[in-house]
Amino acid sequence: MGDLYDSQRAMRQMRKAAMQRGVVAILDVGTSKIACLVLRFDGPEQFRSSDGVGSLAGQSQFRVIGAATTRSRGVRFGEIDAMQETERAIRTAVQAAQKMANVRVDHVIACLSGARPRSYGLDGTLDVSGGMVTEQDISQVMASCDVPDYGADREVLHAQPVNFALDHRSGLADPRGQVGNQLKTDMHMLTVDATAIHNLFYCIKRCDLELAGLASSAYVSGMSSLVEDEQELGAACIDLGGGSTGISVFMKKHMIFADSVRMGGEHVTSDISMGLQIPAATAERIKTFYGGVVATGMDDREMIEIGGDTGDWEHDRRTVSRAELIGIMRPRVEEILEEVRERLDAAGFEHLPGQQIVLTGGGSQIPGLDGLASKILGQQVRLGRPLRVQGLPQAAIGPAFSSAVGLTLFAANPQDEWWDFEIPAENYPARSLKRAVKWFKDNW
Amino acid sequence: MRSLIRRTSPDALPRDPAPSRMGYRYQRMMLTPGFRGTVRIGVPILLILIIAGSWYSKPENRAALAATIEETKQSFQERPQFMVQSMNVVGGDLAVLTEVAALLPSEFPVSSFDLDLEKIRADIEALDPIKSASVRVGQGGALDVQLNPRVPVALWRDGTVLRLIDADGVQSGEIMARADRLDLPLIAGDGAEDNIAEALRLFAAAGPLIDRVRGLVRMGERRWDMVLDREQRILLPSENPVAALDRVIVLNDAQDMLSRDVAVVDMRNTKRPTLRMNEEAAEALRRGNTTISTNEAGN
Q1: CB-based contacts of B107: which residues, under 8 Å, 6+ apart?
Q2: pLDDT (0 to 100) of residue B259
Q3: Looking at domain B152-284, does it have CATH number 3.40.50.11690?
Q4: Looking at residues B78-88, what average pLDDT do you find?
């Protein structure tokens, strides 16, 4: 268990180094686009003495000084498919962002949307026998969690303690210093395919960058597009991406569930492309200009030129009504949303006190999606946009950038993960000397 | 069927916006502040140094550079504004002037940069007859030399040589014979030149005796003897010799002492001035005394 987190710990160290240098890059590797933001940490609150979240939700301490987006290549379902292509796309984005920032970045925090995330709820118990709960106890109770066999080809991406309970009192955020007999913890662990992470690692290394953090895009888009009370009371964030749709459920400001549906906006585009016999680029264009999910009488009369360049006049002058386009798009969107509903049902979302569902991601910009989603997912559906962060260009404030913006928040104030706590004493080789000294004291 | 519109050739690859690996690395390197500074400032400086160094390493280039510098310097220094056309020596007699002229540049015009005025002045002041001198390049490109010659106040007989001595005790020349400078008093003896002031006071105090004074002799480097004609000497004390001389003069006025057969007036002990008479005068006095005593005895 102990050595599992060495790379995560190393990444945390790297993140600290990056904060020290003041410049860190954010990389959102998506199926349809790769976004890179360059953050500079030199705000007025950099040397704040008190802890906790600062003003403006802690965002006033950093500023976006470079932003670039490029069309993604070689990524399918949010996983890297063709490494060379992806590496080139990452290079394009990073170079453009560096050029805008006019500063060299060496550390990057990345997120990935696919890689078949799987959530596990863990719990652990520790007998503290009437003593005060120390940090060691917390790390030991987390170490005592029963970890299921999640498979050799998977890696832990997030492992966050969600809840602590001391005897009969539950819902403690920080039990340190309290006195009790039995300490329990609930932990949420998210595992993903190891190969996807390794591919991303490799691509970023090939770009001469150091990975300073890794996050699930469902998690970070929830952080950026859910407002505080939604995170507190319970809400689900649906990130409708290009190749996959991320689902994350938040409760008490902690992610308690995450999943992804391997369908997204590119599937809608390919449906249009196949249905209308047009190239994917044209399909993407007419989807973004004329797409929708609710047809009205007006849409029958609105004709869209879908064109072509075969030289055949009849073929190149084809038109299609908007109603037809909606007729192609709607079933796929419904399918995605129904799949999301299924996942949420499987996670037991209906038992949460809050039933808010927030749609974000590039796919949420389809007109009429909120109406369709409320029919499938429940009444409390809204469209979410990411938080405004300082210095973000106008082109990057749309819902398509919610995971990139969420990553900036993740970089600025990361939640405590398992590997941020102290290493339990029995696994820590440096403690052996202390134990030897203790043995001498006890026996002589 | 061929399409009507122009298409790009199928071989042409679609444009790739991605930078090449080397281009990407290059840009990252250029964004590194240290490297950027080195390239923007260090490399041009290095290049200039290399070019200058390789040019300078050839001896003919070095020579040409030195020649150019020399020529520029020369042409600047030889501008008419800086040329000294003539010289103008003021003060001092002819003998001194000839000596001084030997120290000054002989050929005119000469650039004022080539004249070391400080050295010329030092050389001139090193001459015996010159007390001080001022050398400057004055109006109209003339070298003005202002001489301030030493004024001799006494003659100092040093063995067989007669030296001219000024008030500071510095000799300013020699003369052949006493007759050349009868106006100057004569002093002699070891250490005489160090007490010129006292000697001059004594000469000034000599008053009525001055016509008879031959000179002053320093005795034992501590006191003076005033030598008069007819081989007379006045031995003065080392302390307060002028007062002693005044007493002698008063005695002389009252009793016409020095016109008698007195060889030495010894004033070394001021409480008891002593006279020493000539040999013959002493004989005569002794004889007279005997005559008187015999006469008394005879009576």
Answers
A1: none
A2: 80
A3: yes
A4: 82
Count of H helices and E strands in chain A? 14, 18
* Nearest Cα to Cα of residue B113 among B90, B79, B142: B79
Report whether pLDDT(A2) > 50.
no
Report residue B164: phi and psi, to 5°: -90, 140
Query: Matching CATH topology for B81-149 and B152-284?
Result: no
With H, G, I as helix, E, B as strand and everything else as coil, classify residue A384: coil
Q: What CA–CA distance (Å, rounded) separates A137 from A152?
A: 29
Interface of A with B in 257-316 (CB under 8 A): 309-311
How confident is the model at residue A1, as a pLDDT?
38
pLDDT tops 50 at residue A3: no
Quick one: fold of A265-329? Nucleotidyltransferase; domain 5 (3.30.420)
Q: Count CB neighbours of B144 within 10 A.
A: 15
| DSSP-H helix ranges across A279-362 | 280-290, 297-301, 313-316, 322-347
What is residue B138's DSSP assignment?
-
Residue-averaged pLDDT of chain A:
86
C-beta neighbour count of A239 within 10 angstroms: 35
3-state secondary structure of B27: helix
Mean pLDDT value of segment A211-240? 91
Protein fold of A118-192: Dna Ligase; domain 1 (3.30.1490)
Separation of alpha carbons A193 and A242, rounded Å: 19
Average of pLDDT values for B81-87? 82
Residue B146 carries which side chain, given as an amino acid letter? Answer: Q
Tell which CATH architecture fits domain B81-149.
Roll (3.10)
3-state secondary structure A5-69: HHHHHHHHHHHHHHHHHCEEEEEEECCCEEEEEEEECCCCCCCCCCCCCCHHHHHHHCEEEEEEE
Cross-chain CB nearest to B31 (options A92, A104, A311): A104
Instruction: List the structure tokens of A434.
Output: 């202390």
Q: A309 contacts in B (CB within 8 Å)? A: 3, 5, 7
Identify the CA nearest to A402 among candidates A169, A227, A149.
Answer: A227
pLDDT at A5: 66
Domain spans, chain B = 81-149, 152-284
Which region holds residue B263: left if phi is over 0, alpha if psi is between -120 and 50, else beta? Answer: alpha
Average pLDDT on B155-168 reads 79
**ipTM value:** 0.75
Q: Is the pLDDT of residue B185 over 70?
A: yes
Please tell me the predicted confidence (pLDDT) of residue A50.
Answer: 54
Name residue, tokens 């490494």: A83
The encoded tokens of residue B169 equal 């005790």
CB A374, CB A334: distance < 8 Å:
no
Residue B57 CA from chain centroid, whole number: 47
Domains of chain A by residue range? 118-192, 265-329
- Measured in angstroms, the CA of B44 and the nearest CA of chain A are apart by 23
Tokens of B216: 């002053």
Cα distance between residue A15 and residue A36, in whole Å: 17
B18 reaches A (C-beta below 8 A): yes
Gap from A434 CA to chain B (nearest CA, Å): 45
Whole-number Å distance between alpha carbons of A382 and B142: 104
Check B17 against A70: CB less than 8 A apart.
Answer: yes
Q: Which helix H or strand E contains B253, and what residues bound it?
A: helix B241-255
Query: How far, in Å, are A350, A378, A442, B62 from residue A245 at the CA level?
Result: 20, 18, 59, 78
A291-342 tens-digit pLDDT: 999 988 888 899 998 887 888 888 889 999 999 999 999 999 999 999 999 9
- Which residues from B are below 8 Å from A70, CB to CB? 17
